[in-house]
Amino acid sequence: MIQSAHVIGQGRLGHHWADRLEELGIRTHRWGRTPSESVRDIHHWEASLQTDAVFIAVPDGAISEVAERIAPGLQPGTLLAHHAGAVPLDALPVPSSDRAVMWPPMTFISGQTPDWSAMPIAVESANPGWLHWAQQLSPKAFSLTSESRRALHVGAVLAGNLTAAWLGTVEGYLETHHLSLDMLAPLVEESVSNALKGKALNTVSGPASRNDRTTLKQQTDVLSDPAQGPSELATLHRILTNRILHQHGHDPLPPFQAAAPTD
After folding, report:
1. Coil, strand, or helix at residue 123?
2. 81 to each of 70, 87, 125, 142, 241, how far by Cα in Å?
3. How far is C-alpha 131 from the chain's CA centre?
4. At 103, phi and psi to the nearest 5?
5. How many CB atoms lie under 10 A from the CB of residue 190?
6. Would you call 243 exposed, middle or buried from its count of C-beta atoms within 10 A (0-12, 13-18, 19+)?
7. How far apart are CA 71 and CA 73, in angstroms?
8. Nearest alpha-carbon partner for 137 in 155, 124, 123
């Protein structure tokens, strides 16, 4: 279906996407070594672009601008696609059968070739042919709607970005005690591996699942300052601990006690 393609934007995603197209034997032209160059290069497009597909791999805020500049020069039947999880499909001003979102909910790392056999690719398009084609890039490509893509994008942030932020917060706490997060790497890896098998809260062990109130109070005390009250980390600990307690049928932790008055 696609024998030639243009990839606009050569950040990490665009670079790896173009590599994958070339690996499949598709003649691929790369535009823009940086996001700003990607937008500037559009001025050089010819009035009629002879290609089977154009993939827009620029930052989310630039997708509409790039698409509007490209669309008038595309031949009917040419695929125009972007790779953003949160940008609407109608940001691509071409007939519905000629457009698609192909969003891989994955972090791409420079210099590290992704495993395309396990790469999830969320495809939104009115044309089912584009899903079938995406499954050549990865057998893990799947179809979804605009609404489900928005929900999956939020889930990706919660499960990916916020997990990293949480581990970074824990790392900062450990460093104040001259400890390293590396010491807990096997525990984290095993916990995440178990959680991804399904029913994540049911896989959690530890004092909350056992309703060990003595240990939970000790943890709360360690994370709180008697004069200042609960720290941000103590608040996060409380929220997540209560989720585990609820899952296992236990009562939530009691409210924080008011901080001691200062002179």
Report:
1. strand
2. 11, 11, 9, 15, 42
3. 20
4. -105, 115
5. 11
6. middle
7. 5
8. 123
For CA atoms 15, 53, 37, 63, give the dihedral sign: negative
List, for residues 196-238, the tens digit of each pLDDT value: 988 888 888 899 999 999 999 999 888 887 667 678 898 999 9
- Strand 229-230 and strand 27-31: the pairing is unpaired
Q: 54-86: per-residue pLDDT in tens?
A: 999 999 999 999 999 889 889 999 999 999 999
Adjacency order of strands within the sheet including 4-8 = 27-31, 4-8, 53-56, 79-82, 99-103, 121-124, 141-143
| Global pTM value | 0.84
Q: Note the helical H segments in the chain.
A: 12-23, 35-41, 63-70, 128-137, 146-156, 162-176, 185-195, 207-210, 213-222, 232-247
Give the three-state DSSP class for 7: strand
Rounded to whole angstroms, how far apart are CA atoms 4 and 190?
A: 43
Distance CA 230, CA 207 (A): 20
Cα dihedral 86/92/97/101 (nearest 10): -30
For the chain, which domains are there?
4-144 (3.40.50.720), 149-247 (1.10.1040.20)
